[in-house]
Every structure is written in structure tokens, then in C-alpha cells.
Write a structure and sequence with these properties.
globular, binds hypoxanthine, 9 strands, 267 residues, 7 helices, Rossmann fold, alpha/beta
Length: 267
């Protein structure tokens, strides 16, 4: 049996067999979303098969299953990153597991640095498209023709439209832009930031892109949003650090929680 199917059995045993409609991945400092779940069952990643436990502070190490806005929802409270082990497909089993339990929609969140003066720390930027600046791809080695994934409108236009309208309703400023994936774990140099901005990116971060690629490969609808924690290196006087990222992520977290709660309800 595949790891994903084995995990699906564990999840059904522990959290009930009703299909899960939506899966959510939480970025640094965004774990508050998990508190919105009712009838919540917590399954530690180390209780699941081939689930990367991830070693980044500020990230959770458990899968939560419960109900959010009336929808059966699974929340990955933390993700593993490329920079931890050098594997672009490190999130493949977790996402295959989400698909195996029924999730047709994947909502991704992260913390990111802004490249734009009008996208400020503390604000949210919904991802409209991405630049896989690393060139690493989680589907390298995938033998089937399904690997040739069309990445036009990878971030679902309908969900983006819905999110903009919900944000408007909630008086939340929701910017939209292109996210560039930089491997990390170092932050970028100011020269790299100038280059990536020149390439057309509006924000930069160390995650999300490989997960969006995997989810499209698995046939899931994808929506993603960055909580902007800082200006990119060299664009302001502040010193960028992981501690600062975690503290600043909390600023956007409340807004993101409100947005996600409504978005899941309207799926
Ligand atoms: N660069 C990369 N990743 C990040 C940043 C950044 O400036 N801020 C939060 N995550």
C-alpha cells in the first residue's frame, strides 16, 4: 500500500471516515488557524507514514482534522521545506495523503518578504502566479506523463476572485502578486532581491511553490496567500531574521484567519 493510502486509513480510524473537503497548510507563526477547528482530532506527523516532521521553529508538527465553517478540513500545522534536506518533493506524501482522504482544494499560507513599497509588512498578498526561481521541481523523477503539468492559472482564478470579495467585505486589504521561490535557508542578498524584482516578482519566500506544483499534479484547486513579514533585503533598514519573521507573521495572522474562515465556508 502507498504511504498516502496507509495514512488515509490512519486518519479515517482516528478522525472518522467522512471525506475531507479542504486541506490547509500553515506557514510560520500562523498556527492560530488551527484553533478555529471544531471536533478537532490531532495526529502527530510521527504517527503517520513517511510524513516529514520538519525542524523549523514556529512550525507545528501535527495534522489537525475537524470542521471549519461547516466543511471537513485537514490542517497541516507545519510544512517541511526544500532547504531542510534538499528535496523539492518533501511535501509529496503529505499532499498525496490529503488527496487520498478526499481534499479537492488546497489552501497554502506562508510568510514572505515584500518587493513592493505598496505591499507593507503586516499586510496580506494573495499569490496570483509564481516564479520557480530555484529551478528545482518536485516532479523531477516522476515517470508518468502527468508530470507535464499546465501551470497557467495554477492559482485558481475563481478562488482568487472569491477571496478578494470576502476581503472587501471584511475590510481587509488583500494585495495580489507574484511570489518567487528562493531556496533559503539564508535570506536573499540585496542584489538578489533587485534581480528577482526585475524578473517580475512582488514577494519572495522559501516555500509554497513546490506544494502548488504537487497539488496541481494531483488535480487539486490551489489558493495561496503570503503574510508579509518584512521588506526584501536592502529595501528597508530593518534587520531580517527568523525571529522577526515569526513575530511579524502574527500581525497578518488574524486577518488571514478571518479570510480563511470565510473562504472555506464559501467553497
Ligand atoms: N525572504 C525569504 N523568505 C522570507 C522572507 C524573505 O525576506 N521573509 C519571510 N520569509
Amino acid at each position: 500500500m502507498s504511504a498516502a493510502n496507509a495514512n488515509a486509513e490512519i486518519i479515517r480510524d482516528r478522525a472518522g471516515s467522512e471525506p475531507i473537503e479542504v486541506a490547509l497548510v500553515l506557514g510560520s507563526g500562523l498556527s492560530g488557524v488551527g484553533d478555529l477547528l471544531s471536533d478537532r482530532e490531532e495526529i502527530r506527523y510521527d504517527e503517520l507514514v513517511d510524513f516529514p516532521t520538519g525542524g523549523v521553529s514556529g512550525h507545528g508538527k501535527a495534522l489537525l482534522v475537524g470542521t471549519l465553517s461547516g466543511k471537513r478540513t485537514a490542517i497541516l500545522t507545519g510544512r517541511a521545506h526544500y532547504y531542510e534536506e534538499g528535496r523539492a518533493d518533501v511535501m509529496r506524501v503529505p499532499l498525496e495523503t490529503m488527496r487520498a482522504v478526499g481534499a479537492k482544494t488546497l489552501l497554502l499560507t506562508n510568510s514572505a518578504g515584500s518587493l513592493e513599497n505598496d505591499i507593507a509588512p503586516g499586510e496580506l498578498m494573495m499569490i496570483s502566479d509564481h516564479i520557480n526561481y530555484n529551478g528545482f521541481n518536485p516532479l523531477i523523477g516522476e515517470p508518468t506523463d502527468d508530470r507535464f503539468v499546465n501551470m497557467v492559472d495554477a492559482y485558481d482564478p475563481q478562488l482568487r476572485k472569491q477571496a478578494l470579495s470576502i476581503a472587501d467585505d471584511l475590510w481587509i486589504t488583500l494585495k495580489e502578486g507574484v511570489y518567487a521561490w528562493y531556496s533559503g535557508p539564508t535570506f536573499e542578498t540585496p542584489a538578489e532581491i533587485r534581480m528577482i524584482k526585475g524578473f517580475g516578482a512582488n514577494a519572495v519566500g522559501m516555500s509554497t511553490v513546490p506544494e502548488a506544483i504537487l497539488a496541481r499534479f494531483l488535480g487539486m484547486r490551489v489558493w495561496a496567500c503570503s503574510s508579509i513579514t518584512n521588506m526584501g533585503a536592502g529595501l528597508s533598514d530593518e534587520t531580517i531574521s527568523h525571529q522577526h519573521t515569526k513575530e511579524m507573521a502574527l500581525k497578518g495572522a488574524k486577518k488571514l484567519e478571518q479570510l480563511l474562515e470565510r473562504l472555506v465556508g464559501e467553497l
